[in-house]
């Protein structure tokens, strides 16, 4: 990261001298973009590209979004395309699904996915299952998006991770971006996808800036749904994660690298379909697996990954049992010291790696 | 032929019973048939029961004109629907249809009247008592029956069943009580958004009428002036619970509160048609949603597993059948106004019986869907997908 910045600084000087004499060659314009801005830009571009796309949800229009993700969109696109809804999730999620059935391409925002529980019947029974039940007669091109999982100090009813719940259901695609590039590319793919997509954001990641290449800023930059990304290659152990926990894995990997342990960090990007192949390929190389997630352990994302590894070719390459690092199996408490100890910390990942590697 | 017709017409007008044999005069056939057509009244005006109104100064017209052509078409459609449902009853008892089967017999005037009051380019969505609407929205009887029997020739290739049939501008067939109402409001939103002057008819029952999501839909539809006709088919029972035992207010046409409402006799196909025309005009004029309550009745129980007599008397069912049957009412009206003959009706009935038999034949002989189809239709417009089977070694393929 730091070395890249140095290169850019020096590169710029060299190039500006060269520019005066030679053919114009622009260096890759990498910029810092927060996850929030990446989401905002993706929606803006997709709204412009296809007039059937529209956004509805609580406070998305005149308030600029509860978390400011839709800032400026209402001013640009107006009442018809950016719609403030009353606080009636079941109703407006159903309306969004109906609009999708009748030819539009709605983005339905849940202020947090905790509130999607009120509307979950519409997501599963009306959206996810319809293409199958109709044997291909009725498609539902809809995106359900919003922040998912633990935040900071919002307590039990506002901190649940729904990756496992939605990831359980056939007919849905479920994605969980980590970086700004993920957010932008996956949201564009989700909006262009002709199927129901559950797009799990993370409130704590909204303000985090990431370097984005010029390529990733192009209007047609898409990240394919169903493919994981190796954020950090390594040889000794595979860490599989999604959303904010990818940051913790990378931090843990940096600490472990100082001790000579090289972790391969895989950013799942998609929960459903799950990129099992990427994980298997990695295990064949590293022989060890740990999954890291913010959600609860029982029937979670990690549980699914471990089961698949057991059932597949990678099992024979494991030198020790694969394990999960997860949120603690309790409703989220409020007090900071309790909350901090309810979710995985970097030290938990380091501890688990060392236990797995028996060092 | 002509003599016989005149005799019958006169007899009916006089209210007297026809007895004795009729004499048929022989004449050149061509002339006779041309004459017999001209003998029928091409159209007549009928009175309709005045509707109860909520937040409306004027309601649907109390008079309507029915053409012979339309009348015969409505008769044929209702009778086809009736026979189709009765055949489904038979097939269910023979265990050829399985699972849920919610029959619509008794309520035919609702589906047919609504379809007559809207355009094919308008939209309809209903709940699980959907076979009638599937038919009026254009799906052939044999595809409906083959879907009930779970065969590959079914409208949903056998993968949906009774509650999940779809067609152009018809969004099912929905199994979760009340969930179709926000969907319908969403279809109406799309109509408004796309500016094609279309409306969405969103149906629900007296049982669903208490669902919270329906009130959420009312709110948003009224707020955004969505072109949505909310229709409550009140058949007096939500499964085994009568309306008095389920609803604090049984004035379903008023339950939209700020949304204007009309209460309609759902057994009169012309009344339903007129009310639907009124409602569609209202929505198309941009005034927002409107609510219609159709008072109707189902002869069968809630579904095939409900005999339907533990919570209501056989006398009640029989009374409705004899006094308010929608098909009989239309037939009597047409015959007594010389718009159709008893023979003609008999011929139509025979044709329908044959059509239903053939459809049932198809539905029982068509093969079940191939196993290769098991995992198809998970996603639309997607690359082929691998799906886990029942065990780790079974990898199945899913095509769009």
From TrEMBL, chain A:
<comment type="function">
    <text>The pyruvate dehydrogenase complex catalyzes the overall conversion of pyruvate to acetyl-CoA and CO2.</text>
</comment>
<keyword id="KW-0313">Glucose metabolism</keyword>
<keyword id="KW-0670">Pyruvate</keyword>
<comment type="function">
    <text>The pyruvate dehydrogenase complex catalyzes the overall conversion of pyruvate to acetyl-CoA and CO(2), and thereby links the glycolytic pathway to the tricarboxylic cycle.</text>
</comment>
<dbReference type="Pfam" id="PF02779">
    <property type="entry name" value="Transket_pyr"/>
</dbReference>
<keyword id="KW-0809">Transit peptide</keyword>
<comment type="subunit">
    <text>Heterotetramer of two PDHA1 and two PDHB subunits. The heterotetramer interacts with DLAT, and is part of the multimeric pyruvate dehydrogenase complex that contains multiple copies of pyruvate dehydrogenase (E1), dihydrolipoamide acetyltransferase (DLAT, E2) and lipoamide dehydrogenase (DLD, E3). These subunits are bound to an inner core composed of about 48 DLAT and 12 PDHX molecules. Interacts with DLAT.</text>
</comment>
<feature type="domain" description="Transketolase-like pyrimidine-binding">
    <location>
        <begin position="33"/>
        <end position="208"/>
    </location>
</feature>
<dbReference type="GO" id="GO:0006086">
    <property type="term" value="P:pyruvate decarboxylation to acetyl-CoA"/>
</dbReference>
<keyword id="KW-0119">Carbohydrate metabolism</keyword>
<keyword id="KW-0786">Thiamine pyrophosphate</keyword>
<dbReference type="GO" id="GO:0004739">
    <property type="term" value="F:pyruvate dehydrogenase (acetyl-transferring) activity"/>
</dbReference>
<protein>
    <recommendedName>
        <fullName>Pyruvate dehydrogenase E1 component subunit beta</fullName>
        <ecNumber>1.2.4.1</ecNumber>
    </recommendedName>
</protein>
<dbReference type="GO" id="GO:0006006">
    <property type="term" value="P:glucose metabolic process"/>
</dbReference>
<dbReference type="GO" id="GO:0046872">
    <property type="term" value="F:metal ion binding"/>
</dbReference>
<dbReference type="InterPro" id="IPR027110">
    <property type="entry name" value="PDHB_mito-type"/>
</dbReference>
<dbReference type="InterPro" id="IPR005475">
    <property type="entry name" value="Transketolase-like_Pyr-bd"/>
</dbReference>
<dbReference type="InterPro" id="IPR033248">
    <property type="entry name" value="Transketolase_C"/>
</dbReference>
<keyword id="KW-0630">Potassium</keyword>
<dbReference type="Pfam" id="PF02780">
    <property type="entry name" value="Transketolase_C"/>
</dbReference>
<dbReference type="GO" id="GO:0005739">
    <property type="term" value="C:mitochondrion"/>
</dbReference>
<dbReference type="InterPro" id="IPR029061">
    <property type="entry name" value="THDP-binding"/>
</dbReference>
TrEMBL record, chain B:
<keyword id="KW-0786">Thiamine pyrophosphate</keyword>
<comment type="function">
    <text>The pyruvate dehydrogenase complex catalyzes the overall conversion of pyruvate to acetyl-CoA and CO(2), and thereby links the glycolytic pathway to the tricarboxylic cycle.</text>
</comment>
<keyword id="KW-0313">Glucose metabolism</keyword>
<dbReference type="GO" id="GO:0006006">
    <property type="term" value="P:glucose metabolic process"/>
</dbReference>
<dbReference type="InterPro" id="IPR029061">
    <property type="entry name" value="THDP-binding"/>
</dbReference>
<feature type="domain" description="Dehydrogenase E1 component">
    <location>
        <begin position="76"/>
        <end position="371"/>
    </location>
</feature>
<dbReference type="GO" id="GO:0005759">
    <property type="term" value="C:mitochondrial matrix"/>
</dbReference>
<dbReference type="Pfam" id="PF00676">
    <property type="entry name" value="E1_dh"/>
</dbReference>
<dbReference type="GO" id="GO:0004739">
    <property type="term" value="F:pyruvate dehydrogenase (acetyl-transferring) activity"/>
</dbReference>
<protein>
    <recommendedName>
        <fullName>Pyruvate dehydrogenase E1 component subunit alpha</fullName>
        <ecNumber>1.2.4.1</ecNumber>
    </recommendedName>
</protein>
<keyword id="KW-0560">Oxidoreductase</keyword>
<keyword id="KW-0670">Pyruvate</keyword>
<dbReference type="InterPro" id="IPR001017">
    <property type="entry name" value="DH_E1"/>
</dbReference>
<dbReference type="GO" id="GO:0046872">
    <property type="term" value="F:metal ion binding"/>
</dbReference>
<keyword id="KW-0119">Carbohydrate metabolism</keyword>
<keyword id="KW-0597">Phosphoprotein</keyword>
<dbReference type="InterPro" id="IPR050642">
    <property type="entry name" value="PDH_E1_Alpha_Subunit"/>
</dbReference>
<keyword id="KW-0809">Transit peptide</keyword>
<dbReference type="GO" id="GO:0006086">
    <property type="term" value="P:pyruvate decarboxylation to acetyl-CoA"/>
</dbReference>
<dbReference type="InterPro" id="IPR017597">
    <property type="entry name" value="Pyrv_DH_E1_asu_subgrp-y"/>
</dbReference>
<keyword id="KW-0479">Metal-binding</keyword>
<keyword id="KW-0496">Mitochondrion</keyword>
């Amino acid at each position: 990261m730091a070395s890249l910045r140095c290169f850019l600084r020096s590169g710029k000087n060299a190039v500006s001298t060269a520019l005066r004499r030679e053919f114009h060659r622009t260096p890759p314009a990498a910029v810092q973009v927060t996850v929030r801005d990446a989401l905002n830009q993706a929606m803006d571009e997709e709204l412009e590209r296809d007039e059937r796309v529209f956004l509805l949800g609580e406070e998305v229009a005149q308030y600029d979004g509860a978390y400011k993700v839709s800032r400026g969109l209402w001013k640009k696109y107006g009442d018809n395309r950016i719609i403030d809804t009353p606080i009636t999730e079941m109703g407006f999620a159903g309306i969004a699904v109906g609009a999708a059935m009748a030819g539009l391409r709605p983005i339905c925002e849940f202020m947090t996915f905790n509130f999607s529980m009120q509307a979950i019947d519409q997501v599963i029974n009306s959206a996810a299952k319809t293409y199958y039940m109709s044997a291909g007669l009725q498609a539902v091109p809809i995106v359900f998006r919003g922040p998912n999982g633990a935040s900071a100090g919002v307590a039990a009813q506002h901190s649940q991770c729904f990756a496992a719940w939605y990831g359980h259901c056939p007919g849905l695609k479920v994605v969980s971006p980590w970086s700004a590039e993920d957010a932008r590319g996956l949201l564009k793919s989700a909006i262009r996808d002709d199927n129901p997509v559950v797009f799990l954001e993370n409130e704590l990641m909204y303000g985090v800036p990431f370097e984005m290449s010029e390529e990733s800023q192009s209007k047609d930059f898409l990240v394919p749904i169903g493919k994981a990304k190796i954020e950090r290659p390594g040889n000794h152990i595979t860490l599989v994660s999604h959303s904010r926990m990818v940051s913790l894995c990378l931090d843990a990997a940096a600490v472990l690298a100082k001790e000579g342990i090289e972790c391969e960090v895989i950013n799942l990007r998609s929960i459903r379909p799950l990129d099992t192949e990427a994980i298997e390929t990695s295990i064949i190389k590293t022989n060890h697996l740990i999954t890291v997630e913010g959600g609860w352990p029982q029937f979670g994302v990690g549980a699914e990954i471990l089961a698949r590894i057991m059932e597949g070719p990678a099992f024979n390459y494991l030198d020790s049992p694969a394990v999960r690092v997860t949120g603690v199996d309790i409703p989220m408490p409020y007090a900071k010291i309790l909350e901090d100890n309810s979710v995985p910390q970097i030290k938990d990942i380091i501890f688990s790696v060392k236990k797995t590697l028996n060092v | 032929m002509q003599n016989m017709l005149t005799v019958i017409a006169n007899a009916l007008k006089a209210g007297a019973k026809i007895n004795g044999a009729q004499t048929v005069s022989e004449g050149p056939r061509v002339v006779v048939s041309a004459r017999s057509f001209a003998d029928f009244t091409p159209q007549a005006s009928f009175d309709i029961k005045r509707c109860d109104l909520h937040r409306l100064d004027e309601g649907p017209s109390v008079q309507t004109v029915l053409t012979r052509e339309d009348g015969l078409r409505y008769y044929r459609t209702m009778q086809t629907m009736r026979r189709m449902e009765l055949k489904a009853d038979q097939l269910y008892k023979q265990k050829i249809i399985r699972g849920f089967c919610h029959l619509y017999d008794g309520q035919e005037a609702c589906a047919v009247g609504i379809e007559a009051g809207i355009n094919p380019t308008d939209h309809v969505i209903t709940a699980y008592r959907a076979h009638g609407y599937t038919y009026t929205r254009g799906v052939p009887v044999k595809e409906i029956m083959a879907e009930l029997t779970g065969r590959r020739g079914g409208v949903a290739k056998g993968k949906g069943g009774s509650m999940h049939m779809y067609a152009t501008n018809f969004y099912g067939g929905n199994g979760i009580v009340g969930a179709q109402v926000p969907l319908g409001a969403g279809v109406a939103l799309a109509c408004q958004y796309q500016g094609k002057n279309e409306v969405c008819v969103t149906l629900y029952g007296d049982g669903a009428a208490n669902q919270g999501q329906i009130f959420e839909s009312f709110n948003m539809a009224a707020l955004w002036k969505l072109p949505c006709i909310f229709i409550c088919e009140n058949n007096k029972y939500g499964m085994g619970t009568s309306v008095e035992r389920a609803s604090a207010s049984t004035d379903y046409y008023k339950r939209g509160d700020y949304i204007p409402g009309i209460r309609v006799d759902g057994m009169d196909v012309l009344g339903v048609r007129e009310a639907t025309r009124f409602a569609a005009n209202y929505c198309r004029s941009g005034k927002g949603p409107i609510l219609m309550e159709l008072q109707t009745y189902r002869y069968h129980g809630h579904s095939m597993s409900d005999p339907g007599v533990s919570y209501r008397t056989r006398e009640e069912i029989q009374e409705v059948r004899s006094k308010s049957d929608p098909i009989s009412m239309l037939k009597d009206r047409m015959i007594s106004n010389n718009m159709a003959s008893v023979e003609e009706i008999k011929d139509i009935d025979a044709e329908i019986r044959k059509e239903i038999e053939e459809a049932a034949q198809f539905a029982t002989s068509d093969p079940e869907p191939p196993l290769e189809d098991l995992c198809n239709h998970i996603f639309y417009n997607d690359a082929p997908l691998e799906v886990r089977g029942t065990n780790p070694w079974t990898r199945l393929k899913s095509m769009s």
